[in-house]
Design goal:
Blueprint (H helix, E strand, L loop, with lengths): L16 H14 L4 H4 L41 H4 L14 H5 L9 E6 L5 E4 H5 L5 E8 L4 E11 H8 L7 E6 L19 E5 H4 L5 E6 L2 E2 L9 E3 L12 E7 L6 H5 L23 E4 L6 E2 L7 H4 L13
Parallel strand pairs: 1-10, 4-11
Antiparallel strand pairs: 1-2, 3-4, 4-7, 5-6, 5-10, 7-8, 7-9, 11-12
């Protein structure tokens, strides 16, 4: 990981004072405040040079290029407006504009989160207590949707590995399952049998322990909008977007591979692993290219979304056509 010191941040990259103060109030509410979150734009994991959407480029990316080591060109931040109005969040509707329209009155306070299963320290937390021990960091990641569109988003969060270590998994624990809130009164999409509710997602424990895997509580230095998975979601940048569970209420450690919502709904289309692999087509379209939101041209899709240097070793010896 590459982290810039505050003294290395250019004046043009410093966060606007109003936005900074809003962020301070936000961070003060949710708990642990890390230097990485307060120093303004940072480079963490596969991040970009600065947080200015008009200037951010990929020429300073750390280990985030293609398998040959090339950094993707023109890797600019996706505008906040697009990030927050073009979403997949079926709990609030199936059209891309539905979440922003239908999640406005979604209540995220108070919020209870349960840690359960094969751990030495099962517990139930108020969200603030769950987050408080961890220093928040700004991570700027590329994201690739299975439908062919992509974004670059600056998240605010903390490593999933921190939560896993704190829970003290038993030696028998091999997977981590994440469950989304079930509340049809607030989530109109759950009133229809589009999917088997509540939404569940899962990872192998070693995947969740990878430094790139995070729990996010904000984006663009602001509180996580309802339509983007407030108040807590997880972000796995080398996998297709459907692997990101939103509005998480339960984290369960298991020995056997848990069922996941999209894998159950359409196993021939959505595999358990969901690693970005341009060589494996979706049954109804090619995955070889993608279109970045805000751009007209399509670009080649990178293996593991360009994060191969950090994650390819997790799948050594696996047939990624079968384990898609």
């Amino acid at each position: 990981m590459l982290i810039r010191k505050g003294s290395d941040v250019r004046a043009s990259e410093i966060t606007d004072e109003k936005d900074y103060m809003d962020r301070r109030r936000f961070l003060g509410r949710v708990g642990g405040i890390g230097l990485a979150a307060l120093a303004g734009p940072t480079l963490l994991g596969a991040s970009l040079a600065g947080c200015d959407a008009s200037a951010a480029r990929a020429d300073s990316m750390s280990g985030a290029g293609s398998e040959a080591g090339d950094a993707p060109p023109d890797d600019k931040l996706t505008p906040y407006e697009d990030v927050t109005t073009y979403n997949n969040f079926y709990e609030f509707g199936t059209d891309k504009s539905d979440p922003a329209a239908n999640a406005k009155s979604f209540r995220t306070e108070p919020w209870t989160l349960e840690v359960a299963g094969l751990v030495a320290k099962p517990a139930k937390y108020h969200l603030e207590d769950f987050i408080r021990p961890y220093a928040l960091e700004e991570r700027i990641y590329r994201h690739r949707c299975v439908e062919g569109w992509s974004m670059v988003i600056p998240w605010l969060g903390f490593p999933m590995a921190s939560v896993i270590k704190a829970a003290e998994p038993l030696s028998s624990a091999k997977y981590i399952q994440l469950t989304t809130l079930l509340d049809p009164k607030q989530m109109p999409g759950q009133r229809r049998r589009i999917l088997d509710w509540p939404y569940t997602e899962a990872l192998r424990l070693d995947e969740a322990m990878n430094p790139l895997a995070i729990f996010a509580v904000g984006l663009y230095g602001k509180m996580l909008p309802n339509q983007n998975g407030a108040p807590l979601r997880h972000v796995i940048p080398w996998k297709y977007g459907f692997k990101g569970a939103k509005s998480i209420v339960k984290i369960t450690f298991t020995e056997r591979q848990p069922a996941t919502t999209w894998n159950v709904a359409a196993p021939n289309e959505y595999g358990f692993y969901a690693n970005v692999n341009p060589e494996v087509d979706h049954p109804r379209w090619s995955q070889a290219k993608e279109r970045r939101i805000g751009e007209f041209r399509r670009r080649p899709t990178l293996m593991f979304n360009g994060y191969g240097d950090q994650v390819a070793s997790l799948y050594s010896g696996m047939d990624l056509r079968k384990n898609y």
